[in-house]
Amino acid sequence: MSTKLRILSVLEQQKGQSISGQTLADILGLSRTSIWKGIKTLQKEGYIIEAVTNKGYRLSAKSDVISAETIRPSLLAALQDLSMHTFKTIDSTNDEARRLSSKDPIRQGIVLSEEQTKGRGRLGKSFYSPSQTGIYMSFYLKPNLNMADAALVTTATAVAVCLAIEKLTTKKPQIKWVNDIYLGDTKICGILTEAVSDFESGKVETLIVGIGLNVKEPSAGFPTELEAIAGFLTSSAEKASFDRNLLIAEIANQFYTIYQAIEERSFLAEYKKRCFVLGKKITFKERNQQFEAVPIDIDPKGGLVVRLSDGHQRTLSYGEIIMKKPFE
User: Fold this and answer.
1) Is 170 annotated as a binding residue?
2) CB 251 within 8 A of CB 164
3) Which of 105, 121, 138, 327 would staple 97 via disulfide (CB 3.0–4.6 Å)?
4) Which domains can be identified in the chain, with CATH numbers?
C-alpha cells in the first residue's frame, strides 16, 4: 500500500477527529516530511483534510471521495478480497468491467468511477454521470447460472439497492419494472445487466451488472431533457455529510447476500413490495403496436404479468413500460 493510502486509512479510522503529524508518523513508521507530502497529495485528489494548529490533521466529515480503502472496512468478510478498481473518470464502468473480465477469466470484482463520459442504460440510452455527485459502479461476476436465472440478476440488484438505501437513510425507494429505482415521481437509479454466454452449455460465463445512482443534485443541474425525469437521493441539507463510500459498501453487501441464493428467488417478495407499477395503468409496445394494460404480478422469472384491456393476460420479459405522472 502506498504512503498516501496508509495515511488515508488512519485518517478514515478517525474521521472528523484530529491526529498530530507526529502520531501519524509514529503509527506508520514514516518521517514527518513523508506525512506532509502524503497529506498534500490526498488534498490534491479532493480529500478535505484540515490542518488544525496544535492538533494536527483532520479528515473532514464532508470529505466524499470514492476510495477502495474507505469502502473495504465496511464490506462483509466474504468480500474483503474482492478486486476493486476506482477511477476519477472513465468511459463506462460496464465497459471497463468487460475489459477486466476478459483479461482474467476467473477473478471477480467491482469497478467504480467518480464520472462516466459514456455511461449508458438499457435500450441504448445514455446515462448522465457527472463527477462527484453519483455512484457509478459495475460488478463483474463469473456465475454458474443458466440464462433464465441470470435474467433475475437485474431484479435482484434493484432490491439490493433499495435495501441499502433503506438501511442507511429514512428514504423509501420504489421500483419501476424492470430496472429503474424511483423516489416519488423521479428516477434516481438505473441498472444495466450484460452477459457473455456459452451457447453450447447455455451457461453464462461473465455477468456485468452496472448501477448508476444519482446521490446528489449536480451543481449545474440536469440536462433539459432530464429535468422532469431525473431525481437524486439526498436533500441539499443531507448531501454535505452523506457518505457515498458507505452506501457503495452496503449495496455490495446486500447484492452479495441476495446473489448467493438467487436461484431460490426469495428476494422476489421484496421486489414485489417495492414495485409501484402493480395495479396501475401502463402502456407498452410490441411489434409496433401499442397496448394498454394493468400489471398484476411478477412471475418467478422476474417477468411482469399484465392484464390487457380485453381481459387476457400476458407476461412481459423485456422492453419498456410507460406510465403517466403522477404515479399515485
Assistant:
1) no
2) yes
3) 138
4) 3-59 (1.10.10.10), 68-274 (3.30.930.10), 282-322 (2.30.30.100)
Has 187 been labeled as part of a binding site? yes
Instruction: Tell whether residue 203 is among the known ligand binding residues.
Output: no
Which DSSP string corresponds to 198-241? ETTTTEEEEEEEEEEEE-S--TT---GGGTTTB--SS-HHHHTT
**273 torsion bin: left (phi>0), alpha (psi -120 to 50), beta (else):** alpha
Confirm or deny that 121 is annotated as ligand binding: yes
Q: Is 54 annotated as a binding residue?
A: no
Cell 435500450 found at: 123
Query: Can you give the pLDDT at residue 279?
Result: 95
On whether 120 is known to bind a ligand per the annotation, the reply is yes
202 to 19, 106, 194, 205, 318: CA distances (angstroms): 56, 18, 15, 9, 19
Residue 220's pLDDT is 87
Q: What is the mean pLDDT of each run of 10 residues along the chain (328 residues)?
A: 88 89 94 94 90 89 86 95 95 96 89 95 83 95 83 95 97 96 96 83 87 94 90 85 93 97 95 96 92 96 95 92 77
123 vs 285: CA distance, rounded Å = 14
Residue with cell 436465472: 149
